[in-house]
Structure formats: structure tokens, C-alpha cells
UniProtKB/TrEMBL annotation:
Belongs to the D-isomer specific 2-hydroxyacid dehydrogenase family. Its EC number is 1.1.1.95. GO terms for biological process: L-serine biosynthetic process. Pathway: Amino-acid biosynthesis; L-serine biosynthesis; L-serine from 3-phospho-D-glycerate: step 1/3. InterPro entries: ACT-like_dom_sf, ACT_dom, ASB_dom_sf, D-2-hydroxyacid_DH, D-isomer_2_OHA_DH_cat_dom, D-isomer_DH_CS, D-isomer_DH_NAD-bd, NAD(P)-bd_dom_sf. Residues 455-527 form the ACT domain. This is D-3-phosphoglycerate dehydrogenase. Catalyzes the reversible oxidation of 3-phospho-D-glycerate to 3-phosphonooxypyruvate, the first step of the phosphorylated L-serine biosynthesis pathway. Also catalyzes the reversible oxidation of 2-hydroxyglutarate to 2-oxoglutarate. Keywords: Amino-acid biosynthesis, NAD, Oxidoreductase, Serine biosynthesis. The keyword Lipid biosynthesis does not apply. It is an enzyme of class 1 (oxidoreductase). It catalyses: (2R)-3-phosphoglycerate + NAD(+) = 3-phosphooxypyruvate + NADH + H(+); (R)-2-hydroxyglutarate + NAD(+) = 2-oxoglutarate + NADH + H(+).
Amino acid sequence: MSKPKVLISDKMDPNAARIFEERGCEVDVITGETPEELKARIGDYQGLAIRSSTTVTPEILDAATNLKVIGRAGIGVDNVDIPYASGKGVVVMNTPFGNSITTAEHAIALIMALARQIPAANEQTQAGEWPKSAFMGVEVTGKVLGLIGAGNIGSIVASRALGLRMKVIAYDPFLTAERAVELGVEKVELDALLERADFISLHTPLTEETRNILSRENLAKTKPGVRIVNCARGGLIDEEALKESLESGHVAGAALDVFAKEPAKDSPLFGTKNFICTPHLGASTTEAQVNVALQVAEQMSDYLVNGGVTNALNMPSLSAEEAPKLAPYMGLAEKLGSLVGQLAHGNLTKISIERSGAAAELNGKPITGAVLSGFMRRYSDTVNMVNAPYLAKERGLDVREIRHDREGVYHTLIRVTVDTEQGQRSVAGTLFGNEAPRLVDIFGIGIEADLKGHMLYIVNEDAPGFIGRIGTLLGENGINIGNFNLGRHKEGGDAVLLLSVDQPIDADVVKQACGLEGVKVVTPLSF
Ligand SMILES: NC(=O)C1=CN([C@@H]2O[C@H](COP(=O)(O)OP(=O)(O)OC[C@H]3O[C@@H](n4cnc5c(N)ncnc54)[C@H](O)[C@@H]3O)[C@@H](O)[C@H]2O)C=CC1
Ligand SMILES: O=C(O)CCC(=O)C(=O)O
């Protein structure tokens, strides 16, 4: 089997390339290309490793015909169109912890730089001015630090600020009272934070709720003399309003590592009094860059080589240890989903996935993803584990997951049931020897079959001579039967025949089979 190919398209610590190679991937490092150049190249790769310079747009994703995974060596993924990637079946991963300490330290550095006006003092001193009386700073001890966002980075900033003897208050709707106590911070509403904070530091992602969270109106609510730090994302602050607040002196200082438009080469804030900035350096330490490079390469190669999923933003996690154990179940689940998708007719509104026995003990999300990826193939042939749940949601399909602790006849069983206009249709399968997938129930009829390759599903009235007649018909059409599986409710009732055949069955053969005496349903299948 050929090795998966990965493109590293942004500057990244060389450890990333080393790990990709050690873990069985081929890797190219080509940075600084234009979107057109990347678009022309991306079709060759299964993996794309990026930082913040590469923007993964729908156009790039459309050209990425072999892409399976995008890995962001960092936290923010606002440079990737995740909904579009999901629709294309591409997993998007990030490294949520690798650069948090480094970024928190940068926020603290900017707080100190603002408090003591270090950049301006440095510049004037080096210009030979010795401006000792021009710079009067403030102590941070005893001052109130208001954190907007107290997740990974915000909580590290809190711990460092507490060490500096600041009083830390935090506005974060998702921060629990227990976690606030654990962090030693006071949880407050946004207005209270704006009113009380001497320093404000932003640590949220950029979302519809957080965009412009420091709007003109909210800046006006801040305490006079407040100092503001943003090491999260541009777009959280109204930059025009910030400039005016700095000029009026209401805001005593502002330090931005991030800008609404990057690279920021001509911001209106440049040159404003008491304004300092860095060019998105929050994550730029040797330690953080080694961390995120190692982590992204490990995660991406796990996925490409073993199917393990860690820190994906559009898919449930699946550890590299779990992946081999789950692999046969996912194979079974996909086949059952595909079978029910090929056999059930009409408008299907609900699908239930039940796991019993050993299957009930496993991580259910990947099994559900596999059932849906088989099932949704009835609507799209570009469906996979990543985009199937999104496509199902788009179609309004109600997906139910049920686990039964008890073991039935089989030590492990997956049952997939869909609601059709004619009632419920259900199929079930097990694993023989914990690895070989076998269908054991089709629409309430017990049968035992391996679902693979080309197959023919027939329902007929159970009567002598039928097997001979269908065998003859297929033989006359040059179709070789590989396997024969039979099941029936009762003698003389409906019988089910599942044939494995070596050639695809065309519409003409289906028509001839439908014409045989006693035949009720003929459906060609493929797995
Ligand atoms: N400057 C740089 O180089 C870097 C910037 N970042 C950025 O820092 C930001 C924070 O990263 P993490 O702490 O790792 O993320 P996180 O996901 O751990 O924390 C974000 C916090 O924001 C909170 N939040 C969400 N919506 C909110 C709202 N409307 N109001 C207040 N709080 C809200 C969440 O509850 C969460 O606790 C991200 O935008 C990330 O991209 C991260 C690393 C480096
Ligand atoms: O890769 C970088 O330098 C930017 C880091 C960042 O902004 C993030 O991880 O969200």
C-alpha cells in the first residue's frame, strides 16, 4: 500500500516533518505559495498541515480531491472553512493545548509592557533622550484583571496574574461556579467586568457572540484608565473605537497581538498614543512551536495510518488504541447501514442504531458514524464517516443511538432500524471470532451472510424448485454465483435469498428475475 502524502504549507518546526516520516507518511514542506499554487498542488495530498498563513477556502477544498485531514498546528481554526470541509468529508484537527502557556505568557508580558510603557521607554532611551520623567507606570499588584474568556489560556493567565497578586474576575458564560472557585477567580457578568477591571485581557474564540465584544458601546462602559490586551483574535474589539478611546485618554493603554485584518500592515491604530502591538506572536516560542508541530504530526499520521482521531473539530474522537478494536465493528456497521439504505424505500425519516453485548461497551459515536456513512450512500457517493452525520442532519434524519447492556443470542450485535412509509425495517449483524462481520437478521428473517462485493437480494414464496430456476437464469446470463444464503419465516411463507455473485447485476437480469414464478422483490446490492 502506498504511503499517505502530507503537505506542510506553513512554517512549522522541522519535528513535524520528522514525525510524519517516522510514522509512515510521505511529506513535502512547501510554504509561502499563493492560493492558486496551493489549489494546483493540493489534489496530490491526503493530509494538509497548516498554521495561520494558509487559508483553507471552499475553492482549495474543491481541488483537494484526495484530502482526508487538515491539521492546524495551533488552536484557532478560523482560517479553515470547517462546515465546507465537513461536507467534503475532511477531518479538521487542532492542537488545543500545545501553545496555551506560551500565549498566556505573552498576554502577561503585554500587561506588564502596558503597565510600565516599556516599548516607548525603550525607543526613546535608545534615541538618546533619557526620558526618565516622561514615564510614570502603575503597579499591577492589587489591580483588577478582567478576563473575557476563561478557557485554557484564560485560566493560565489567571494563575499567573494571581501570582502577581492581582485580583482576577472573569466573564465566561460557560465557566461553572466550581471551576471559578478552583481557579481562584470571581465569575462576573460582562457589564460588571467592564466597570471594575483595571486591565482587561481577551481569551475567547471569534464567534458571532464574541465578535466586537469590546464594541464602542462596551468600551464606553469601561473604567477610565483601563488597559486592554488582546492575544486572542482580531475582530473581538472595534479598532476604530479603541483608537478614539486611546486618543481621549479613557483607555490608558492597549496592546494587540491580533488584528481584524492580518497581516496588519497599515492599521489606523499604528502611531496612536499608548498603543503597542506585536505581529500575532502569541504562540511564537520555541517550546510552543515544538509542541504543536509534534502534536499535529502525531494526530494526523495516527488518522492517516491507523484511523485514530484526536482533537477533531468535526468528528468524534477515537484513540489509536481503540481504532483497531473498533475497526471490525465499523466495517460491520457500515455494511448494515449500506444494506438498509439500499433496501428501504421512500422517505426515510428516522434511523435507530442499537448496540448489544460487547458492542454496547464500545465508543458508540464512531459506530454511528459508520452506519450513517453506509446508509447515506443512498443519497451521495462522496459520503464518509466525517460528512455522513452532517448530511443526515441536513436531510432532517432523526438519528437515535440505543445501547442494551444485556447480551442476547449473540455475544455482540448491532441492529439498524429505519422508519419507512411501510413501517419499520430492521437488519442486524454480529462479528464472528470478534472480527468477521456477518448479517444475522434481515427484516425479521434469520439468515447468515457475509455482505461483500456484488449481491442479489430476492424475496420469494417459499416453494420447491425456485433455487434451481434462479440459478439457471443467472447462469444463462453469464453470472457466476459465489455464495448462497437462505432464510425464511416459516415453511411455505416468504423466503429470503441473498446471493453473492461475481458480476454486477444489470436491470435486464433484474427484470427477468422478477418474472420468475413466486418472486416478490429483486434488488441488486453492492458493498
Ligand atoms: N495570539 C495567538 O497567537 C494565539 C491566539 N489564540 C486564541 O486564543 C483564544 C482562546 O484560546 P483557548 O483559551 O485555548 O480557547 P478555549 O476554547 O479553551 O477557551 C475559550 C473560552 O472562551 C469562552 N467563551 C466562548 N464564548 C464566549 C463569550 N461569548 N463570552 C465570553 N467567553 C466566551 C469559552 O467558554 C471558553 O472558556 C482562541 O481564539 C485562540 O485562537 C490561541 C493561541 C495562540
Ligand atoms: O500559529 C500561530 O503562530 C498562531 C497561533 C494561533 O493564533 C492559534 O493557535 O490560535
